[in-house]
């Protein structure tokens, strides 16, 4: 008897997010064309999923504009079969209503669903860019968040879940700290969330759990105890990105890279695209003997509508 086929790892790339700003990297995609190019770089490098936020093309400011979401999604779908995971996290200070709109307007196969509230702070990065800001809004946006709460109450999570189930959208639950696993376990046990769930552990955000191997193991073990069977992936902010995603691959998990989480390819070297980071992680996976999933395989693993 041969040994069972090892599961394939899904590589996701989050191409722009709502945290990094134009001053921080000339390679951060801002316009619809740049977003499409960056997603294609992910696909060409072997990524199976692209996580998508959109921005105002003039200023680069994060903005949940449904027309831009539609434009980017339509062109990407025309060019390739990569899975699109649209954000419902939105941008700092965005309303829950606005964050939710993309689900009904795009009916995506996968969308982020943030599993709890947290203090999501970026003011600690502001001093590094003092005197360099390209746009007035950037400093305001980041430094103005010192009293900012990213609201994802039980009621909000329930509403997002109901909305996604109406449109056949699979939630990707973003877990920023261990208590959020408890939130999901409660919602699963009370019948409000269907299993199996897909978890994205987000490590190293100021306001969330630090990016350490011990914490990653703790999160996965806690989820096993509380939830049972699930698919999981890891992403980590800044320089922890490749250490945490490599560990995820070794633990049998999936992994997310991309310029939303980290602007660098290695110390002091900006990544020119999210695809460069995908290519690096794919090389690491190859060295470790971990096979990576195609978009079609990712759809099967996650049970997406396609
Ligand atoms: N926009 C951030 C506050 C998501 O995409 O769902 C969190 C975020 C998560 O980016
Ligand atoms: Zn995001």
From TrEMBL:
Keywords: Metal-binding, Transferase, Zinc. It holds the Pfam family BKACE. Its cofactor is Zn(2+). The keyword Lipid biosynthesis does not apply. The keyword Signal does not apply. GO terms for molecular function: 3-keto-5-aminohexanoate cleavage activity; metal ion binding. PANTHER family: 3-KETO-5-AMINOHEXANOATE CLEAVAGE ENZYME, 3-KETO-5-AMINOHEXANOATE CLEAVAGE ENZYME-RELATED. This is 3-keto-5-aminohexanoate cleavage protein.
């Amino acid at each position: 008897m041969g040994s069972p086929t090892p599961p394939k790892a899904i590589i996701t790339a989050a191409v722009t997010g709502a945290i990094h700003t134009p001053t921080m990297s000339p390679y951060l995609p801002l316009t619809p064309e740049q977003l499409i190019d960056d997603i294609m770089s992910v696909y060409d490098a072997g990524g199976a999923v692209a996580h998508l936020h959109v921005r105002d093309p003039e200023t680069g400011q994060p903005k949940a504009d449904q027309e831009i979401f539609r434009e980017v999604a339509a062109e990407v779908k025309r060019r390739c079969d990569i899975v699109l995971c649209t954000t419902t996290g939105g941008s700092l200070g965005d309303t829950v209503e606005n964050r939710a709109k993309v689900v009904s307007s795009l009916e995506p196969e996968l969308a982020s669903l943030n599993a709890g509230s947290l203090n999501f702070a970026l003011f600690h990065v502001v001093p590094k860019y003092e005197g360099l800001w390209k746009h007035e809004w950037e400093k305001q946006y980041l430094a103005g968040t010192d009293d900012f709460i990213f609201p994802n109450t039980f009621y909000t999570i329930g509403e997002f879940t109901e909305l996604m189930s109406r449109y056949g959208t699979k939630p990707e639950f973003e877990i920023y700290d261990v208590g959020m696993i408890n939130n999901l376990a409660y919602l699963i046990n009370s019948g409000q969330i269907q299993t199996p769930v897909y978890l994205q552990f987000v490590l190293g955000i100021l306001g969330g759990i630090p990016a350490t191997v011990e914490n990653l193991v703790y999160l996965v073990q806690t989820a096993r105890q509380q939830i049972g069977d699930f698919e999981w992936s890891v992403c980590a902010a800044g320089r922890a990105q490749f250490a945490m995603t490599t560990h995820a691959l070794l633990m049998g998990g999936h992994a997310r890279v991309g310029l939303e989480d980290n602007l660098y390819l290695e110390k002091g070297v900006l990544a020119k695209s999210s695809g460069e980071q995908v290519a690096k992680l794919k090389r690491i996976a190859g060295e470790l003997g971990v096979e990576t999933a195609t978009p079609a395989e990712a759809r099967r693993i996650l049970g997406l509508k396609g």
